[in-house]
From TrEMBL:
GO biological process terms on file: L-leucine biosynthetic process; L-valine biosynthetic process; lipid metabolic process
Keywords on record: Amino-acid biosynthesis, Aminotransferase, Branched-chain amino acid biosynthesis, Cytoplasm, Lipid metabolism, Pyridoxal phosphate, Transferase
Gene that produces this protein: Bcat1
Name under which the protein is recorded: Branched-chain-amino-acid aminotransferase
Subunit and partners: Homodimer.
InterPro entries, alphabetized: Aminotrans_IV (IPR001544), Aminotrans_IV_CS (IPR018300), Aminotransferase-like (IPR036038), B_amino_transII (IPR005786), BCAT-like_C (IPR043132), BCAT-like_N (IPR043131), BCAT_family (IPR033939), L1_C (IPR042566)
Function of the protein: Catalyzes the first reaction in the catabolism of the essential branched chain amino acids leucine, isoleucine, and valine.
Record PANTHER family: BRANCHED-CHAIN-AMINO-ACID AMINOTRANSFERASE, CYTOSOLIC, SUBGROUP IIII AMINOTRANSFERASE
């Protein structure tokens, strides 16, 4: 693969797996344990820049033992999903927001910049090849995990001179074992914090999640499913486990309000959070606020019967109702389910409708994939490889010209030393092509 200062999706080299793994039953999926046949990798070095993207069989990655990602957490990741709609069309939900957040996280951890649209186009190619892994199920989807790691082979604490960007895919069912829309219980204790001002809480970095595991297991020991993260002396409510938090209540001024903590550096700017704010503001039915919320305000509202619903929101779970909070050794009952939950249910339906059926966002935020059979995926892989070789052989071509390639190519990777050789061999392969 040749080096580029900016990688291009059109330069992607594709090597198809020789054997396809059996597809799992969508009703028995455990989150993040099954992976598709292929993966995307793109290497970078300060000396050579970006290499051409490569889509090949899913396999282990070889990494130097001194790599900065292993020692100093110079790494980040993203999480997004592909959905198969009732019309059998595969869609991504607002992937541009994931790309923006990923680039922002890369900047924060001193990893190299990249073109957001080119990476998204590479991800599209990968999904198109593995599209039969997108579950034919209304409760399951294909989870997409872009990851970016520093591979600097040195124990020095410094900006990495080498990095690897890779994307893996995993068919997933409901995130929580209790189901996709059952209420969860939370443990709130200020002795643990998820993030702090000036830190990296607003970036999607692995260190933020690994450091939360101890508190998560303590929450489990106390009979709760997730941690309600608090911050500061006033016990500000920040996030719920790996989700953004929403409170639907009657506020201190007697207003019907949907509130969520503001993006002040300790809150991850979630795509689902963003979408819920967009939807509810578009409705115009009640006040929608990004404001600070404290445990004192919540307990007072519970005592006054002003709380209607509380729920978490995120890519993995979409919307997750909260039913109980263990705080200062007291169980606080949250009446989410007693109130329907009307709002949480409505949001879940509208969001999943958008993800699987409709395009209500402007600027083409939802990317649509045509449905292709495995045979067509093989043909398209051959198309990309031939296109790559024609470009390197300095052959002028157009999409219409290359689209004449037939399935007889069977995914083989043909190498041409010159334009003349390319034309000669292609004439043999496909009579009438040139």
């Amino acid at each position: 693969m040749f080096s580029l200062s900016v990688f291009k999706a059109d330069d992607t080299v594709i090597e198809l797996a020789t054997v396809s793994k059996p597809k799992p039953d969508p009703s028995n999926l455990v989150f993040g344990t099954v992976f598709t046949d292929h993966m995307l990798t793109i290497e970078w070095s300060a000396k050579e820049g970006w290499k051409a993207p490569f889509i090949g069989p899913f396999e282990n990655i070889s990494i130097h033992p001194a790599s900065s990602s292993l020692h100093y957490a110079v790494e980040l990741f993203e999480g997004m999903k592909a959905y198969r709609g009732d019309d059998n069309i595969i869609r991504l939900f607002r992937p541009d927001l994931n790309m923006q957040r990923m680039l922002r996280s890369a900047c924060r951890v001193c990893l190299p910049s990249f073109d957001k649209q080119e990476l998204l186009n590479c991800i599209k190619k990968l999904i198109n090849i593995d599209q039969e892994w997108v579950p034919y199920s209304s409760s399951a989807s294909l989870y997409i995990r872009p990851t970016f790691v520093g591979t600097e082979p040195s124990l020095g604490v410094k900006r990495p001179s080498k990095a690897l960007l890779f994307v893996i895919l995993s068919p997933v069912g409901p995130y929580f074992s209790s189901g996709s829309f059952n209420q969860v219980s939370l443990w709130a204790d200020p002795k643990y914090v998820r993030a702090w001002k000036g830190g990296t809480g607003d970036c999607k970095m692995g260190g933020n999640y690994g450091a939360s595991l101890y508190a998560q297991y303590e929450a489990t020991e106390r009979g709760c499913q997730q941690v309600l993260w608090l911050y500061g002396e006033e016990h500000q409510i920040t996030e719920v486990g790996t989700m953004n938090l929403f409170l639907y209540w009657i506020n201190e001024e007697g207003e019907e309000e949907l509130a969520t903590p503001p993006l002040d550096g300790i809150i991850l700017p979630g795509v689902t959070r963003h979408s819920i704010l967009d939807l509810t503001r578009k409705w115009g039915e009640f006040k929608v606020s990004e404001r600070y919320l404290t445990m004192g305000q919540l307990t007072a509202a519970l005592n006054d019967n002003r709380v209607r619903e509380m729920f978490g929101a995120g890519t993995a779970c979409v919307v997750c109702p909260v039913g109980r909070i263990l705080y200062e050794e007291k169980n606080l009952h949250i009446p989410t389910m007693e109130n329907g939950p009307k709002l949480a249910t409505r949001l879940l339906k509208e969001l999943t409708d958008v993800q699987k059926k409709q395009d209500i966002y402007e600027n083409n935020h939802i990317r649509i994939f045509p449905d292709f059979s495995p045979a067509t995926a093989t043909k398209r892989a051959a198309f990309y490889n031939i296109k790559q070789q024609l470009r390197q052989a300095n052959v002028k071509y157009s999409l219409l010209y290359l689209a004449k390639l037939k399935v007889e190519l069977q995914g083989q990777f043909y190498v041409f030393a010159s334009k003349e050789e390319a034309e000669k061999e292609l004439r043999k392969l496909i009579p009438g092509l040139i």
